[in-house]
Amino acid sequence: MSVVDDILGGNEKSAARLITRIENGDTDAYRELAVLFSRSGNAHIIGVTGPAGAGKSTLAGRLAEEMARRGKNVGIIATDPSSLSGKGAFLGDRLRMKGAEERNIFIRSMAHRAFPGGVAKATAAAAYIMEGLGKDCIIMESIGAGQADKDLFFLCDTVITIFTPEYGDDIQLFKAGLMEIGDIIVVNKSDKPGADDALREIGIAVDRSTRSNGWHVPVIPAEAVSGAGLSDLADAVESHRLSIEGKGEAPSRKAEHLEAFLTALLKEELWQRISGRITAHDVFKELSHEVLNGTIDPYSAVHIILERLEREWTSH
């Protein structure tokens, strides 16, 4: 049997190996992924985002448990910050998802690898592979990278944005657009002082915003450690899924998201291919030395480098 056949047959070890090969840039792995991609598009992908320390990992794990109790075949993709030395995932999120692991929910920790939005290039591939395993509900947790976290929107059918009673310290995240992309907002750690005020103020902010599709964003209090509020959250997720399907938005929404994510991947791939050529070029080394010596500022150096390389590349 091929790797693809193994995965379609539910072999999670084969799925994990294929994800690792894709993370490592294995060309053959991408060919195998192409077969699985043709089978994708039916799972409900749920994004979980928010500021650091909001409890994303714990809530994602608890939500997975609740969805599994409701009969869903669940997978989790947890995106960790990359190790500075080995570029691997820290696996810290896994420590907060023991309940999900005990239910044998398939969890994959992914290294960030500097992809915009805290979502590794291979994360989308992991979602397609999980669909191949038969997962009909995939929970995708990002590392919470502020403005760039909006790219999570392009992978998910439903986005959950998490804040805490101390959300006022993260007011810039409102400006960054996390309020805009959240289909559901959770105020986690709602047992802490200030939770009622946070719920009221965020509710007012949500009421002021409008959604062209008529969806009213619910604001849900929760306490992920104890599991309080998770049933209400799962109900809201299901309501949002039914809303999308009932209005016939699912195909156009997926097409829009796929196009936007394809653009993001293209930018990433182009940068990876070009950056090596730039940093190895003599003009880059020359200008870097001048910046270090203080004879030129970095901004001017970048413009000079680009101008010289453009003249060189267009003349060939």
Describe this protein's structure.
The protein has 316 residues and is of the alpha/beta class. The protein has 2 domains: 3-249, P-loop containing nucleotide triphosphate hydrolases (Rossmann fold), CATH 3.40.50; 265-315, no CATH class. Helix content is 53%, strand content 12%. The protein is built from 14 helices and 7 strands. A 7-stranded parallel β-sheet has the order 3-2-4-1-5-6-7, sandwiched between helices. Helix 2 runs antiparallel to helix 7 (121-132) and helix 13 (282-293) runs antiparallel to helix 14. The longest helix is centred in the last third of the chain and has 31 residues, at 250-280. Residues 82-90 and 114-118 have low confidence and may be disordered.
Q: Quick recap of the structure?
A:
This protein is α/β, with parallel strands linked by helices and 316 residues long. Helices cover 53% and strands 12% of the residues. It folds into two domains: 3-249, Rossmann fold, CATH 3.40.50.300; 265-315, no CATH class.
Strands, helices and their partners?
Elements: H1 3-8, H2 12-23, H3 27-37, E1 44-49, H4 56-69, E2 74-80, H5 92-95, H6 98-102, E3 106-111, H7 121-132, E4 137-141, E5 158-163, H8 171-176, H9 178-181, E6 184-187, H10 195-208, E7 219-221, H11 230-246, H12 250-280, H13 282-293, H14 298-315
Helix pairs in contact: 2-3, 2-7, 4-11, 13-14
